[in-house]
Design a protein that fits this description.
Blueprint: E1 2-6, H1 11-22, E2 26-31, E3 43-46, H2 52-59, E4 64-69, H3 75-85, E5 89-97, H4 125-139, E6 144-148, E7 150-152, H5 160-169, E8 173-177, E9 183-184, E10 186-188, H6 189-202, E11 206-210, E12 217-218, H7 219-230, E13 235-239, H8 241-246, H9 274-278, H10 286-300, H11 316-323
Parallel strand pairs: 1-2, 1-4, 2-3, 4-5, 5-6, 6-11, 7-10, 8-13
Antiparallel strand pairs: 9-12
Helix pairs in contact: 1-6, 2-3, 3-4, 5-7, 7-10
């Protein structure tokens, strides 16, 4: 396979390229060359995708069997790239997100979607991802849309699992959120990459929710895996949803990978992902993901904070106010 990856130096793009290279595929990556480096053997096209004329010139006379786009910014960029690549590629995949479903309604792929504008220059994250989907589908109606759930694993530059690992490695008493058995639903970035490339190889099309079975892991299992991976002597102190809310500890950002089971988060992290599993998705155990992420952090260090993502982690003042309750 001749594969074109739009991006390729960070997180999902990096996992896609590593998996494709391991298959013996020929890989080309399009990016500006400003973040990260590409592995040896990967051809590079240096161009700003927002420069539509420059992008068209860069791909002129070239063709690929398949394209994967990981874009999460303005939909008009993904839309323009897909339009330019029409006639240059046979298959197309987009790393989308479960965020494209209307909040509080997500059950499976048939759930209602947010509105999106393929030519939008900004918007909320769900609108950006849905707009990009629509723009790509206009050029490639048979595109594969991988609506990923919570993505964790090596190369994570969002700061969710790395924060937990670093905090737990520091030891002491650690705030643990909510019900220890709260179901966790996630996808290791390498499993996401493998499933998308398998799908392109088989000619798979359409939208799929790509995440583990809800409850395959739990909050407690994730945090205990962090303790085991780091060899920490940290002690988990569990706090109820009410206690966390009272001091202003925010789910998902202050306490990464976690959300309450009640209120506006009811049903969150509990989607039916059987469609993707029926088409070959395999999600590895959270212990393996955690251990490999810690090994990567020890090897390469913490990646820079992405400017397009919130800073994750529990502020020290909130942590101290909670621990003072015990």
């Amino acid at each position: 396979m001749d594969l074109l990856v739009l991006g390729g130096t960070r997180f999902v793009g990096r996992a896609l390229i590593e998996d494709a290279r391991a298959r013996g595929w020929r890989v080309t990556a399009v990016n500006r060359g400003q973040t990260g480096t590409l592995p040896s053997g990967v051809s590079a096209i240096r161009v700003d995708r927002d420069d539509s004329d420059g992008f068209a010139r860069a791909i002129d006379g070239r063709s690929w069997d398949a394209v994967v786009d990981t874009w999460s910014g303005a939909p008009r960029t993904a839309t323009g790239s897909a339009a330019a690549l029409r006639g240059h590629a046979t298959r197309y995949a987009y790393i989308s997100s479960g965020s494209v479903y209307r909040w509080g309604t997500h059950v499976d792929e048939s759930s209602p979607l947010v509105d999106g504008d393929p030519e939008a220059g900004d918007g909320s994250y769900p609108e950006l991802k849905r707009g990009a989907e629509l723009g790509i589908l206009a050029a490639f109606p048979d595109a594969l849309l991988a609506r990923a759930g919570l993505i964790i694993g090596p190369y994570e530059d969002i700061g969710r699992l790395p924060w937990w690992l670093n905090r737990i490695a520091a030891g002491g008493r650690v705030v643990a959120p909510g019900d220890p058995e709260r179901p966790l639903q996630y996808i290791d970035v390498r499993d996401l990459a493998a499933w998308v490339l398998d799908g392109l190889d088989r000619g798979l099309t359409g939208a799929f929710d790509v995440a583990s079975v809800s409850g395959a892991s739990t909050t407690k299992r994730l945090l205990c895996a962090c303790i085991d991976a780091t060899g920490s002597t940290a002690e988990l102190e569990w706090f109820s949803e009410t206690e966390l809310e009272r001091v202003g500890a925010l789910p998902w950002t202050h306490l990464p990978c976690w959300a309450p089971r009640t209120g506006e988060f009811a049903g969150f992290l509990e989607a039916d992902t059987s469609k993707a599993r029926a088409h070959g998705l395999v999600a590895r155990a959270v212990e393996e993901t955690v251990a490999d992420t810690w090994a990567w952090l020890q090897s390469e260090g913490q990646p820079p904070q992405r400017p397009d993502r919130d800073v994750h982690g529990l502020p020290t003042a909130i942590e101290q106010s909670l621990l003072a309750l015990r």
